[in-house]
Amino acid sequence: METIKDSDWPGKKENAKAAAQIPAQALSPRLAEVARLFRTKPFFPHRLARGGHAQTLVAGLKGKVNTRLNDEIRGSEARTFEVAPGASLLAHCRWQSERRAAPTLVLVHGLEGSSRSHYMRGTARKAFTAGLNVVGVNLRNCGDSEHLTETLYHSGMSGDIRRVVEELAEHDGLRTIFVAGFSMGGNIVLKLAGEYGERPPESLAGVCAVSPSLDLSACADRLEQRENRIYMSSFLHSLHRRIRRKQRRHPNIYDARGLRSVRTIREFDERFTAPHAGFRDAADYYAQSSALPLVARIRVPTLILHAADDPLIPASSFLDPSLALNPEVLLVMPPRGGHVAFIADAASGGEDRFWAENRVVEFCRLLAGALPAEGA
Predict the structure, then answer these.
(1) Which of 19, 125, 174, 372 would be a feasible disulfide site paired with 308, CB 3.0-4.6 Å?
(2) Distance between terminal CA atoms of the chain?
(3) pLDDT of residue 24
C-alpha cells in the first residue's frame, strides 16, 4: 500500500500538520498509475471551512442547498434486490443507453443515511455524467424501505452488497462493477473485499471507501467524546425513531421500552443492534463486523480516502501494519477534510468543490480503461 501524504504534493504548503503516515509501500501497477495522477490533484480545504468539524457540518448542508441533486432521484429507476429470505434492499438506478457495455458503480451510504444522502446523489450525478451506470443502494430499512424487511441493518452486512453485485453480474450481465461506500458503507465494502480474499469475482473491478469506519469500537469511543455530542445526538434521534417505527410494524419483535435511557451508540448497539443480529453483545458485534482485520486480504484494486482531522473516525485506524503491506490498497489521507466532506478551496479542471466524489469517479474511470480521466 502507498500513502499519498501532504509532503508528496508540490505547488502548495499545507499549514496543518499531517497525522502520522503509514510508510510508503510498492503498489500494484494499476494503483501506481492512479497514485501518480492523484498526486497532481491534492486536496486543499475551503478557506472558510478548514477544520474537521467545519468541513463535516458544512457538507451536511449540501443536499439542502443544491437542488440539482434531486434530479438523481427523479431520474432514477427504483429496483429491489432480494438479499435474504424475507429481506430486500431498495436501490435507485440510472442506466446508460448501452447498459452492458458501461461500467457500473454501486454506492453504499453511511449510518442513518440513504440513497438520498448528499454524498450519494453527488457521486451518482458525477458517475452517470462520466458514462457509468449507477446503483444507489439503501441498506435494510433505509430510504423508505422498512416494509421490505423485519430486520435492522448494521455495519457488518457485507453479504447484502455481495448479493447485489452477484445479481448485477449474473442477471444483468454487467462485466465491470465498482463498489463505493461512505463512512459505515465504507466499512461494509472493505469488509466485502476482504472476505472475497484471493478470489474476488471477475466482475468486481475496484472498491472505494470514503471516511470508512474501519474499527467500529474505536469509532464508538470517538463519538462519546464531548466535542462530538452534536453528531451523537443526531444519530441517536434518528435511531430512536427507527426503533419506534419498527415496533409499530413488528410489535412481537421489537420492544422500545427504556429507549429513552439509551444515550450512546454503544448502548444502542448493546440493546438493539447486537441481539437482533445474533451477536453476543456490542463488543462481539464490533469485533466481527469491523473491516480492519480483513483489509490485508484485499486482492482487488482499492482506494481509501480519509482525512486525518475526521472528527468521527480516528486516523490511528489507518496505521495498522497489515494494511500498510497490501499493494492493492491506495490510501490518500490529507491532513484536513472532515468526515465524508472534503470541500475544496476551489473548483478546477471542470470539477466542483467536492473532492472525494471526484476522486471516486476518477478512480473508476481510470480502472475501467475505456473512460480515460480528464488530463490523463
Answers:
(1) 19
(2) 22
(3) 61
